[in-house]
Task: inverse folding
């Protein structure tokens, strides 16, 4: 005996789910993974119970949002594999990844392991890793980067932006968003300078004469 097919959500439930996801995406980007569900519900104009009817846990809600962004970044990379200039496409991909980190605190925290592991996030990270490897391999074959550079090296370089930006605010696990919100402070100016230096490293380290990546842990 076969089970009946799941009934589609009513139109009002679909609207509520979209309001919830949009509100959660904004809250997570601004405040990180520790934002309370009550704040997300208030921003969406719904009750906490409604949040949990759509998503059993906050991690499930967070995973939906971050997974979508990871797959979107992977899709960007896949499109770039068809572009003509391997050096330029790798630079463009890295810039897109760094920009996403700079704009979304929760994305940083999940990708770098602050939030609990989740299978959906893990699967999307593996997809992104595959795309990063493909772009790096293509750049290496065309002599755009050194022959010993791997996709993991590129991922570590992009990760370094997060690790530096996370020190912009003392005693806080913040991401690159602090570059803009703290730009008038000494810490903010240091982070802005770091972001500029990273951009220069991308510009001169990916191309005809690739720069040397720092040793891991330095």
Result:
């Amino acid at each position: 005996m076969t089970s009946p097919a799941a009934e589609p959500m009513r139109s009002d439930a679909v609207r509520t789910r979209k309001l919830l996801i949009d509100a959660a995406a904004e809250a997570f980007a601004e405040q990180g993974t520790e934002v309370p569900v009550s704040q997300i519900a208030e921003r969406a104009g719904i009750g906490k119970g409604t949040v949990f009817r759509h998503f059993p846990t906050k991690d499930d809600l967070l995973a939906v949002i971050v997974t979508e962004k990871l797959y979107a970044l992977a899709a960007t990379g896949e499109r770039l594999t068809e572009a003509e200039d391997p050096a330029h496409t790798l630079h463009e991909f890295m810039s897109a990844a760094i920009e996403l980190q700079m704009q979304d605190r929760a994305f940083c925290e999940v990708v770098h392991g602050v939030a609990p592991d989740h299978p959906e996030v893990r699967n999307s990270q593996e997809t992104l890793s595959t795309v990063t490897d493909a772009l790096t391999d293509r750049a290496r074959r065309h002599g755009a980067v050194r022959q010993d550079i791997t996709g993991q090296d590129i991922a570590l370089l992009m990760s370094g932006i997060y690790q530096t930006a996370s020190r912009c605010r003392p005693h806080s696990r913040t991401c690159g968003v602090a570059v803009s919100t703290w730009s008038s402070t000494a810490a903010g100016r240091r982070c802005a300078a770091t972001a500029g230096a990273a951009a220069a490293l991308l510009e001169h380290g990916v191309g005809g004469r690739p720069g040397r990546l720092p040793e891991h842990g330095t």
